[in-house]
Amino acid sequence: MRRPLRRTSALNVVLLLYWLCCLAPSPVSSIIVTTPPEVHASKGDTVTLSCSFTSTSRPTSRMTVDWSYRPQSGGPPMMFLHFSSRAYPPTEGQFGGRIRWQGTPARGDASISLINATLNDNGTFTCTVRNPPDVHGSTTSHTVLTVTPRVPSIRFSDVAVLLFFILLPSAVITLILIGRMMCPKKERNQSKAHRSPIEVTEGDEYGIPGYTHKEDRAKCCDLYVMDSDEEYYLKDFKKRPPEAEGYADSHC
Ligand SMILES: *[C@@H]1O[C@H](CO)[C@@H](O)[C@H](O)[C@H]1NC(C)=O
Ligand SMILES: *[C@@H]1O[C@H](CO)[C@@H](O)[C@H](O)[C@H]1NC(C)=O
After folding, report:
1. Tens of pLDDT, residues 97-120
2. Which end of the chain is more exposed for a tag (fewer CB within 10 A), N or C?
3. 145-193, pLDDT tens digit by residue?
């Protein structure tokens, strides 16, 4: 008879403890304020700093909102906007004239917007909502704002990367291919081998003007032009040997 009784009371104690530690606090933290942990913006943007809250009590005229700011460099938080029945945005200081109240307390919204964000606006924005009698719980929430310079350099770097990794290699490959097509190594060597006797013997023999050894170094296309000239000269000055004619046709 005693044992079941003890068991029941022990169970009750456990249940009571469970209720105290896990269920009891929930009616106390009846207000929950939430903000995005991080907001990123570019210089000159209009940034919405959203803040929403849920409360077991309906928002009344006693409900208040405070927005404060703590610079990235540190220092104490500074309250810059107070809402109580109506919003009191800052008229001077860092955010003077740049804060708009966007909230609708009846819908649990206490958002603001920051106009013309500057690089100096980096820091932590804190939204605090009090809705008496709900004044306990997580009444505050933080948003870290990061304002970056508005850079076309992001686009520029994209273009640079594109140029570097795609266009440059393809241009190089194209150039190499064109070079190979126009000046195949074998043919160039052949042409040198074939040309030198013609140059030395016939060029010297007939005294063709402007036809010197310097032109050995000339490029393939120049050689082609020279071949035509040579042909022209040879036709004028001498009957061309048939091998040389065949060579001139096959070249380039
Ligand atoms: C934004 O700020 C810059 C200087 O910080 C100012 O020249 C410009 O007029 C401002 N724009 C607006 C819309 O307030
Ligand atoms: C704000 O943060 C951005 C990104 O980290 C940085 O580029 C900028 O210089 C910071 N502004 C200041 C005033 O430190």
Report:
1. 999 999 999 999 999 999 999 999
2. N
3. 999 998 765 566 677 777 778 788 888 888 888 888 887 665 555 544 4
Ligand 2 pocket, 146 CB below 6 A? yes
State whether 158 and 136 are in the same domain: no
Q: Whose CA is nearest to atom 6 of ligand 2?
A: 148
What is the value of pTM for the model shown? Answer: 0.54
* 73 CA closest ligand 2 atom index: 14
Total number of domains constituting the chain: 3
pLDDT digits (tens, 9 = 90+) for 208-234: 454 444 444 444 444 444 444 444 444
Phi and psi, residue 208, nearest 5°: -65, 125
| Best residue among 147, 153, 154 to mutate for probing ligand 2, ranked by most atoms within 8 Å of CB | 147
Position 231 in a domain: yes
Residue 212 is inside which H or E element, if any?
none
Q: Which ligand has the nearest atom to the CA of 41?
A: 2
Shared domain check, 222 and 125: no
**Which atom of ligand 1 sits closest to the CA of residue 116?**
1
Q: Are residue 44 and residue 142 in the same domain, yes or no?
A: yes
CA contacts within 13 A on the Cβ side of 122: 9
Q: Which residues contact 37 (CB under 8 A, 6 or more apart)?
A: 142, 143, 144
In a domain, 39, yes or no: yes
Domain, as residue range, for 160: 154-184
The CATH code of the domain that includes 75 is 2.60.40.10
Residue 2 lies in a domain: no
Ligand 2: atom nearest CA of 120 is 13
- Cα distances from 71 to residues 74, 120, 144, 147, in angstroms, run 5, 8, 10, 12
